[in-house]
Amino acid sequence: MNPVLLRSSLRHAICLSSPPLRGIVDTPLVSPPLASCWRSHRDGWNAGPELRWGTTSTSSLKGLRKFKVFCSSVDSRPVGEQRDEAPVSSSQSGKEEQIEGEGYGFLGLGIMGVAMAKNLLKLGVPLTVWNRSSDKCAPLVELGATAAKTPAEVVSKSKITFAMLADPAVALTVAVGPGGVVDAITPGKSYVDMSTVDAETSVTISKAITSKGGRFLEGPVSGSKKPAEDGQLVILAAGDESLYHDVAAPFDVMGKKAFYLGEIGNGAKMKLVVNMVMGSMMTAFSEGLSLAEKAGLKQTDVLDVLELGAIANPMFKLKGPSVIKGSFPPAFPLKHQQKDMRLALALGDEVAQPMPVAAAANEVFKKARNLGLGDNDFSAVYKAIAESS
């Protein structure tokens, strides 16, 4: 068995084992903290401070599942370490019977959310999902997830609930509106909002969750459709540090690297900075391609020259060919990029930071939206530039 696969499985299960696994914990396949966990607790099963799984009896199947789900944080491998292969999915091993209040939940199954939720299923933990358009739950249900009718129902069935929602307004409604997350939050439950929102929205949601005794972590991501599908997102987390450690395994299957950035709002701010830079770069890239064409140069030659120079980067390499073809399938919708530019500019106003380049880029994205390109990929901003008189 692939050592990475074995370690991923042991991450959830080693502490459940009986004496036959004594030898395994002394091999390189098991990280030192996980091995220590096994050795420390195999005789008495009295959980030490490094485990955050609550009181339970491992003598019953329910207790075993509890321990399996919430023992993941003891692995010492960095959250962002790349994996050679993903863990076996629950669809391969059969759907587990869900215990009320256990497992994971996921809210929002758009382009990003559906890919992230599919990766969560690879942990073999019960997953409950919800989306405003319920038909989007079907692909996850086919893979072993359970669909819920409201966000509150998801939270009631889950220990930790993740969300990937369109914008601050939706994130607030799902969190604190009727039938929302807060309606079902109780002590012991946690909420991880991975949506891109402003810091103020994140703080508001955090206060609502913690006022009910829950834990909150913001975790916006850098990356679009393909990285989400491949589990290669960059996660920008802030908030409850104990929760950050408890979601190490989910973050590991959804991302290639996770950062803990401190207090609530820092994750949101970092994401806005990153997306502001990305939007400004895409606008300049589009201007360059359009200028080259009108000056009689081959746009493909521009891509080749850029790839060999100091500003070579994955975005130009990935988006360039499709821009030249005039094909803009949405990996990251343009309307969301413009929303992030707007939020970044608002952050600049808040801290009195001049942002003339980002402001100009935002105007071009707004023009693209007015041209009806909002649901296209954000690289469709090229059309707003190329078609300018």
UniProtKB/TrEMBL annotation:
InterPro entries: 3-OH-isobutyrate_DH-rel_CS (IPR002204), 6-PGluconate_DH-like_C_sf (IPR008927), 6PGD_dom2 (IPR013328), 6PGDH_NADP-bd (IPR006115), HIBADH-like_NADP-bd (IPR029154), HIBADH-related_NP60_sf (IPR051265), NAD(P)-bd_dom_sf (IPR036291). GO terms for cellular component: cytoplasm. Residues 265-384 form the 3-hydroxyisobutyrate dehydrogenase-like NAD-binding domain. GO terms for molecular function: glyoxylate reductase (NADPH) activity. The keyword Membrane does not apply. The keyword DNA-binding does not apply. Pfam families: NAD_binding_11, NAD_binding_2. Keywords: NAD, NADP, Oxidoreductase, Stress response. Catalyzes the NADPH-dependent reduction of glyoxylate to glycolate as well as succinic semialdehyde (SSA) to gamma-hydroxybutyrate in vitro. May function in redox homeostasis and play a role in oxidative stress tolerance by detoxifying glyoxylate and SSA generated in glycolate metabolism and GABA metabolism, respectively. Belongs to the HIBADH-related family. NP60 subfamily. This is Uncharacterized protein. It comes from Riccia fluitans.
